[in-house]
Design a protein that fits this description.
single chain; 6-stranded mixed sheet; 9 strands; binds inosinic acid; binds magnesium ion
Length: 179
């Protein structure tokens, strides 16, 4: 695995420190609200999600969704499909989506709209990383871990063709792997 990493972009320590800060901010912002449903977007956000929810010191409900915009490659299909829906009710509740990366923005723009339509009280987004240069649609990221350059990253949940998710840090994938 390590041999396919061009460089380490975010170390385990950097990620841990930032996740703690995000958790503290979320705790502060939601402490007087009567609900918080944290929904992780599978599979990429799974590692970030597990660390983040333990830094939120509130009685949260958790759920997961799987949506696909990228198929088995690093090229976007431009289409969003719900593979697995959330199972707990979010009507009149405050929803916080947790995502690994905001790239074009299509996936989360669509998912946010769906939940507003379903009658959530509020819908916010927490993303570990964002590639602003790649954005194709305007989307607010309420809690952002790191802005990153326009390179293909792997690790800490992020995959290339379903691999590398278990790297403990975030690295840039070597070009020769996906060319
Ligand atoms: P968006 O709809 O273009 O914002 O797509 C975001 C999704 O694309 C993320 O949930 C990732 O699954 C995938 N993605 C985008 N960029 C990368 C990357 O650099 N590494 C791994 N997955 C990525
Ligand atoms: Mg994803």
């Amino acid at each position: 695995m390590e041999k396919d990493v061009k460089e380490i972009l975010l170390t385990e320590e950097e990620i841990r420190a930032r996740v703690k800060e995000l958790g503290e901010q979320i705790t502060k912002d939601y402490k007087d609200k009567n609900s918080l449903v944290v929904i992780g977007i599978l599979k990429g956000a799974s590692v970030f999600f597990a660390d983040l929810i333990r830094e939120i010191k509130l009685p949260v409900e958790i759920d997961f969704m799987a949506v696909s915009s990228y198929l088995d490659s690093s090229v976007t299909s431009g289409e969003v499909k719900i593979i697995k829906d959330a199972s707990i009710s979010t009507t009149m509740k405050n929803v916080l989506f947790v995502e690994d990366i905001i790239d074009t923005g299509f996936t989360m723009a669509k998912v946010k709209d769906i939940f507003l339509e379903r009658g959530a009280n509020s819908v916010k987004l927490c993303a570990l990383t964002s590639k602003p240069d790649r954005r194709k649609i305007d989307i607010d990221i309420d809690y952002l871990g790191f802005e990153i350059p326009n390179e293909f990253i792997i690790g800490y949940g992020l995959d290339y063709a379903e691999k590398y998710r278990n790297l403990p840090y975030i690295g840039v994938l070597k070009e020769e792997i996906y060319q």
